[in-house]
């Protein structure tokens, strides 16, 4: 199998309140050394509560944010070192779809110009070819090409997310980072968007990083799932395996929050419930970041950072119990 993206020891820390790192400046530890590989054509789900660094990781991978340290390799190219035209070209190949289809579309631009902007930036088409391409993209996402002259406010939330998808597709990307693309939509619309993304993946050979805040949202679309907590990956496995055999207490807690319709499965399931909220990334706990909420915490958990351990084929988790 071919690896399209590799993330190595990626760290992203922000000075609190923006600006520069200074003396005594508090630091937001948003992403704290994550490692993973993404296979060509797959969907890797990235799940965690808000503030776990999943969106920051996504933005850092395409260098919307500069990484603090670590390496990002996309199709053999070092994204972290790319500049000028190389960086522009990498950004074309790695597109992003955002959570809020209301905020991410410029309200003063027509849908045609929103979808065509990437064509202009990357000089992919002009004149009639540009217009034809915009019409084609609108058809692909199920909108009438006649809608090219309308403005975003004339569309529903689901339609706006489709426009965001057309904008991402316009430049022929290889990888799309989907940052909670369905979280803001009605439940009835969520499945439509997921189905469309799956069809596009099949048709265009796309690879997705699919970011979400709960496991039920990534279940149907992901081939593999990484669970993040406070800027670290705590477990990563094939989707089916993660649901069937979760090993990290945090993954078990996330799964416990999802109801299972089958009572036979429900009866055999070990439920764990965690209280409280994620600690502040400004002052994360020593050792295992999950120890302030973990029902199984023991002495070693505050002393040593648990490392990801191989638990079987395609399954790793980081916990001192394992
Ligand atoms: Fe819980 Fe300790 Fe495992 Fe962390 S390392 S998840 S605190 S048992
Ligand atoms: Mg987010």
Topology:
Layout: E1 3-15, E2 27-39, E3 43-47, H1 54-61, E4 69-74, E5 77-78, H2 84-93, E6 94-97, H3 111-121, H4 127-140, H5 157-169, E7 175-179, H6 187-204, E8 207-212, H7 215-218, E9 224-229, E10 232-238, H8 239-244, H9 249-256, H10 263-268, H11 300-303, E11 309-312, E12 315-317
Parallel strand pairs: 3-8, 3-9, 6-7, 7-8
Antiparallel strand pairs: 1-2, 1-4, 4-5, 9-10, 10-12, 11-12
Helix pairs in contact: 3-4, 3-5
The structure holds iron/sulfur cluster and magnesium ion.
Give an account of the 3D structure:
The protein has one domain (3-317): P-loop containing nucleotide triphosphate hydrolases (Rossmann fold, 3-Layer(aba) Sandwich), CATH 3.40.50. The mean pLDDT is 92. It is globular and about 70 Å long. The protein starts with a strand and ends in a 5-residue tail after the last strand. An 8-stranded mixed β-sheet has the order 6-7-8-3-9-10-12-11, with helices on both faces. Strands 2-1-4-5 form a 4-stranded antiparallel β-sheet, covered by helices on one side. The protein is α/β, with parallel strands linked by helices. It is built from 11 helices and 12 strands. The chain binds iron/sulfur cluster (SF4) and magnesium ion. Iron/sulfur cluster binds at residues 249, 288, 290-291, 294, 296-297, 301, 306, 319-321. Keywords: ATP-binding, Nucleotide-binding, Transport.
